[in-house]
Structure formats: C-alpha cells, structure tokens
C-alpha cells in the first residue's frame, strides 16, 4: 500500500511515477484522436504496441510497489522490445509488411539487429553491437550466471543469498529498474507523437486512464 511501500521516497521512483502520469495523459489524448482517424498500417501497429508498452511499465511499477524487484527487472526486456519495434519501424518503414505478416522469427529482425539498424538510421559514427546491448536482458531472461546480482540479498551475518520472493532492502536495484523503465517510457511518449503528430500534448486538466482504447 502507499503508506508502507518499501522504496517510497526514492528519487528515481518519484521520477518514474511522474513519467507514468504524463504518459497516461498523453495516451488518453492519443487514443481519443486515433478513434476518429483512418489509420495507416504504421498507426495500426502503434495502436497495438504503444498500449502494451505502457501496460508493461505499469506492471513494473506495481512489482516495485510490492518489492518484487527481480520480476520487475524481467519485464524490462519485453518493454525494450516493444519500444525498439516502434523506433525500428520509424527508421525502416518498409519493414511494416513483416509486422503485418506476424513478425515471425526468421522473418523479422531480432532485438539486437533492430538496435543496430536504428543506430545506422541515425547516422551514428560508431555502431554499438546489438549483442552487447542486449546481453544483460538475455542473461536475466535465460538465467545465466551473471543474472545473479539481480536477486542477491544479504542473509543474517552478512552472507549473500538469493531471494525467491520480495526484495525489501536493495534500493540500488529499485533505482536501477526505475531508471531503465522511465527512460524507455519517455521514448514511448516520443513515439506517440511521432505516429500521431496531431495528438494534443498532456495538460494538467486531462484525466489519465490506463485503459483508454486504441493507443
């Protein structure tokens, strides 16, 4: 509950909460706008992927609220995947046909390839390898040895152990997951405006709703 959240008061968590509030307001405005439009293929894709991204961010926030930091970190990977799809299709719009076909493995690019393509489209002089960018997410997803720090806790006597439930005394892990999630959520806002440029920016009087329809 709000009165006994384990990490309430953390600066990064506050920023995450503020970002969520702004995203929900913009999402409501975007959804209302999209309901009266003839949507392009790209916008139809955005109407699916943007709400999924927002929902994942809200799920991360709820897991942080309950102290399930390992589970919260696990959800960063699918959030990144969806935001990267939005960025990738902006950079390579011809790939929308692959998304419409089902975005099947072997047909559509994987996360690492999309991240490299986005960098190339932005004319970056140095391209970071996609495999390096995705390595931490893959370690968590597949339970590799270097995933251990994300659920390590201190046992009685200071010995390290591995949490199987809530993690209530690792503010560093809280800060890490909130910083990652809010960063990608800011990009979601940018993608809302990119795919629906006529949407109104959020204003203080707009009532936010996480279930606002299409986008």
Describe it.
- With 215 residues, the chain is mostly helical.
- It has one domain (13-33, 40-195).
- It has 8 helices and 2 strands.
- It has helices at residues 11-35, 41-66, 69-74, 76-91, 96-101, 111-121, 130-142, 171-195, and strands at residues 152-154, 160-162.
- The chain has a two-stranded antiparallel ribbon.
- Helix 6 runs antiparallel to helix 7 (130-142).
- The longest helix is centred in the N-terminal third of the chain and has 26 residues, at 41-66.
- Residues 204-213 have low confidence and may be disordered.
SSE arrangement:
Elements (H helix, E strand, L loop, with lengths): L10 H25 L5 H26 L2 H6 L1 H16 L4 H6 L9 H11 L8 H13 L9 E3 L5 E3 L8 H25 L20
Antiparallel strand pairs: 1-2
- Which geometry do the CA atoms define? globular
* Sheet with most strands: 2 strands, antiparallel
Provide the gyration radius in Å: 19 Å
Q: Total number of β-strand segments?
A: 2
> Treating each run of at least 4 consecutive H or I residues as one helix, how many helices?
8
Strand order of the largest sheet: 1-2
* Beta-strand share of residues: under 5%
Write the H/E string, N to C: HHHHHHHEEH
Distance between the termini: 29 Å
Please tell me the overall pLDDT. Answer: 90
State the domain count.
1
Fraction of residues in helix: 55-70%
User: Which structural class matches the secondary elements?
Assistant: mainly alpha
- Unreliable spans are 204-213
């Amino acid at each position: 509950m709000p009165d006994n959240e384990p990490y309430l008061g953390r600066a990064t968590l506050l920023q995450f909460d503020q970002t969520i509030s702004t995203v929900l307001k913009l999402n409501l405005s975007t959804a209302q706008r999209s309901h009266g439009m003839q949507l392009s293929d790209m916008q139809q894709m955005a109407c699916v992927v943007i709400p999924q991204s927002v929902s994942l961010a809200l799920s991360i926030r709820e897991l942080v609220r309950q102290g399930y930091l390992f589970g919260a970190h696990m959800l960063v990977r699918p959030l990144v995947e969806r935001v990267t799809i939005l960025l990738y299709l902006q950079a390579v719009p011809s790939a929308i046909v692959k998304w419409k076909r089902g975005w099947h493995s072997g047909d559509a690019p994987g996360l690492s390839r999309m991240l490299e393509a986005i960098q190339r489209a932005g004319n970056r002089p140095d391209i970071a390898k996609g495999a390096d960018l995705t390595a931490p997410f893959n370690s968590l997803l597949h339970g590799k040895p270097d995933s251990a720090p994300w659920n390590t806790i201190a046992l009685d006597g200071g010995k390290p152990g591995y949490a199987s439930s809530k993690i209530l005394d690792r503010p560093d892990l809280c800060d890490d997951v909130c910083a990652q999630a809010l960063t990608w959520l800011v990009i979601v806002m940018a993608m809302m405006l990119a795919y629906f440029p006529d949407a109104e920016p959020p204003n203080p009087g707009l009532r936010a709703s996480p279930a606002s329809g299409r986008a």
